[in-house]
Write a structure and sequence with these properties.
Strand content: 5-15%
Shape: extended
CATH class of the domain at 116-125 and 136-330: Alpha Beta
Number of strands: 5
CATH topology of the domain at 116-125 and 136-330: Beta-carbonic Anhydrase, Chain A
Order of helices and strands: HHHHEEHEHHHEEHHH
CATH superfamily of the domain at 116-125 and 136-330: Carbonic anhydrase
Strand order of the largest sheet: 2-1-3-4-5
Helix content: 40-55%
CATH architecture of the domain at 116-125 and 136-330: 3-Layer(aba) Sandwich
Radius of gyration: 39 Å
Structural class: alpha/beta
Largest sheet: 5 strands, mixed
Length: about 325
């Protein structure tokens, strides 16, 4: 071996020895496997998050779910589709008649909402504003719910009272109210949403010796008084300043109060329910002096007892059974021995 080749071999050996003395940069096979699995897991998690986010975005962008438009003929008029079709058909016919009022009628309220009353009443389909306001367009700002309660619809009521500045807050209950009956019974089997709504009603416990209709009617009136009380707590300053009057009323289409089916009666004015105060209020409404019971106001005005539920006159609550019994006793006997 020549000197040059010997020198090259020596340098090569020295370089190899130096490389062996350097710290190992490579990881062990086990660590390499774990590192690889961790990267894969991280990648899968990121992919899963990305997939979920993508699905969420796709779901948000999805159009609302649609179903087939029903048009098949029914076999019975009592079927849901038949009832729906009949209602809508009559709605279009009634609307066509309503449009005959003409442009002048609608132009009176087309550009401005100017109601005189914020009305809180029950959603019951038997209770309609025509019972107390035949021309309710732009006159009744109406909030309807299950049991004619203030709690749960505060925003809507505030809009009428404070934004539209209606001088009257009218709370209308009605006889035969399903909400009142439900609130006085076991509500545990009802849905949570209905239970929450019924908590807003105030129905006293029934007294002894009273029939079901009497208890029911008392509950309706008690709930109206309670709602008036809640309104006074919230809008007391407006009432005290004369900008608002809170009136509680009952629409009696069952004649449970014995003053005729369909009667609309005032039971509370700003927290007052005494017969004398109610009659004085009615006299003021009719722009005339207070008159004795039985006398009419001049110019065909209403006598106070015509629109006020006088607790003194009916001795508390008159139910249909009591009213029928009194009518029978007053009528001539037709019995033949």
């Amino acid at each position: 071996m020549g000197p040059l080749r010997l020198l090259k071999s020596t340098l090569t050996l020295l370089l190899l020895a130096s490389a062996c003395k350097q710290p190992a940069a490579a990881v062990t096979p086990e660590k390499e496997i774990l590192s690889h699995e961790a990267k894969q897991g991280k990648g899968r998690a990121e992919a899963k998050r990305g997939s979920e986010e993508g699905k969420a975005e796709e779901k948000a962008d999805e159009p609302p779910q649609k179903y087939t438009v029903p048009f098949a003929w029914e076999t019975s008029k009592a079927e849901p589709l038949a009832l729906t079709r009949a209602f809508l058909k009559e709605s279009f016919e009634d609307n066509k008649t309503y449009m005959e009022h003409g442009p002048r009628f609608f132009s009176a309220f087309a550009d401005a909402e100017l109601p005189r009353a914020t009305v809180v009443t029950c959603s019951d389909s038997r209770v309609q504003p025509q019972a107390w306001d035949e021309t309710s367009e732009n006159d009744d700002y109406t909030v309807r719910n299950f049991g004619n309660t203030l709690t749960g619809d505060e925003g809507s009521i505030e809009y009428g009272v404070e934004h539209l500045n209606t001088p009257l807050l009218l709370i209308v209950g009605h006889t035969g109210c399903g909400a009142v009956k439900a609130a006085s019974s076991d509500t545990s089997k009802l849905s949570k949403s209905m239970q929450a709504r019924l908590k807003n009603l105030h129905v006293p416990r029934p007294g002894a010796g009273k029939n079901d209709n009497q208890v029911w009617a008392e509950g309706v009136i008690a709930n109206v008084h309670h709602q008036v009380g809640l309104a006074l707590r919230k809008y007391g300053k407006r009432v005290q300043g004369g900008a608002l009057t809170v009136v509680g009323a009952v629409f009696d289409f069952r004649n449970d109060l014995g003053q005729g089916p369909g009667k609309f009666m005032i039971v509370d004015v700003n927290g007052n329910g005494e017969p004398e105060r109610m009659e004085a209020f009615m006299a003021a409404i009719n722009d005339g002096p207070q008159l004795k019971s039985g006398k009419k106001h001049a110019k065909d005005g209403l006598a106070p007892e015509d629109a006020v539920h006088s607790l003194e006159r009916v001795k508390g609550i008159i139910t249909r059974e009591v009213a029928a019994a009194s009518n029978d006793s007053a009528s001539p006997s037709t019995h033949v021995d």
